[in-house]
Amino acid sequence: MSNSTNERTGLLNEVIQNINNRRAVRKFKSKTVERILIEQILNAGRMAPSALNKQPWRFYVLTEKESIHSISKEIAKVTVKHVAKLGIKEIVKSILHYIHSPKDFSFFSQSDFVFHDAPVVIFVTAPNDNEWAPIDIGMCCQNMMLAAKSLGLDSCPVGLSKFIEETKMVSRLGLSKKETVQLAVLIGYGDEVPELKERKKDNVVFIN
Ligand SMILES: Cc1cc2nc3c(=O)[nH]c(=O)nc-3n(C[C@H](O)[C@H](O)[C@H](O)COP(=O)(O)O)c2cc1C
Q1: Domain total in the chain
Q2: Whose C-alpha lies nearest to ligand 1, atom 11?
Q3: Is 26 in the pocket of ligand 1 (CB under 6 A)?
């Protein structure tokens, strides 16, 4: 493809390359993430669009190893309880949900299968009474993950984080009763380069 076509289609565009190169990373170096980078990532989250410009997000940032591990342990217990309630078919289905290649099995052997020993965990909450919040928070978290990638960091969104509300560790965050955890984003210097999980291409209808 000629350079001019690349430019027109954005194939050489840094933003698009960043989007294409982001992966859910589940193995991190123990290297500390500088505070200034965390602030930049949070600012990128704040720049997300939100319904009625409500900016419903609130960020709870954990950087202390011990705290992260003890919260992870409690969430793991709740996760196991939830999995135990499922039938065998559902268990296989939920495992397959995470697994896209044989390499993905490695994260089950990690001591921390919730936060994957990430040096930074950002819980993102939203008010319970905002029907658009899950969409807004999704956009906010994607902004953070792309910002992280552009700064030489890696990330992983963690839905299991919502189980913190079923653990005694929820008091560590000091959440109000009016907000709910929507997602957590792990940030750190990646220690793996996961393969691209092929995207489905049969989901577009151009209407004439
Ligand atoms: C809402 C949401 C929740 C997720 N929850 C988890 C999770 O709890 N644990 C985990 O390891 N990955 C989690 N992921 C990451 C996905 O498994 C991952 O994005 C998907 O397999 C595609 O891989 P990629 O991000 O590398 O393209 C979550 C992703 C999203 C969007």
Answers
A1: 1
A2: 158
A3: yes
